[in-house]
Amino acid sequence: MTISTEKIRLVIVDDQVLFKNGLSMLMQTIPEFELMGTYENGRVFATALADMPVLPHVALVDMNMPDMNGMELTEHLQKHAPGIKVIILTVYDQERFVLKMIEAGVCGYLLKNCETEEVVKAVKAVYHSDYYFNDTFMKALKNRTKIKNTNVKTFSNIPVDLTKRETEILVLICQEYTNQEIGEQLNISTRTVDGHRNNLLAKTGSRNTAGLVVFAVANNLLELPLP
User: Fold this and answer.
1) pTM of the entire structure?
2) Which of 70, 73, 85, 133 has the fewest Cβ atoms nearer than 10 Å?
3) Which tens digits make up the pLDDT trace of 167-187?
């Protein structure tokens, strides 16, 4: 995986002052991060975007906030600033809530009682690989969505017909390979990989890489032999 030397631009959007200030202080101690600011709710951050000369790479966003919550802000960013990758901060540890977040375009989620090391790991993973899920969530997702047949389906229960090449590329995406690295491994151009990735997003109804990963795990594609 190719690692950039650029600092990761980060914002925090949370209405809980003590939590926000504590997280802010912690993030400022990480040399790889540049904390651009903190905001008390989604509406304030969405308004501030217009005056930013450069946008953040990652936004740590509280799920429950007054006047534009985390889900609403994510949907707003999908339309107006899709390059910003959202990590939701939540107290809900249930797969059904997380799946709704992924469908909205969230790249990862963290429980508010997680360790500082996991926050750092999540921000770096989302920046470099476009998604972050911890092992606990991945295991729970596999158990919850375990499929008893070989039909591949979206979360809306719509059958999906993936080609062998699309399946190969999906597996490599889930293994955190970049488009360039996938192209080198499969001996195809980066543009071709990008085309297959876009086809995968369209076929599966996914908004981003996080959605593709959830789709692959739910359909056991990482454990089945390639067609």
Assistant:
1) 0.78
2) 133
3) 999 999 988 888 899 999 999
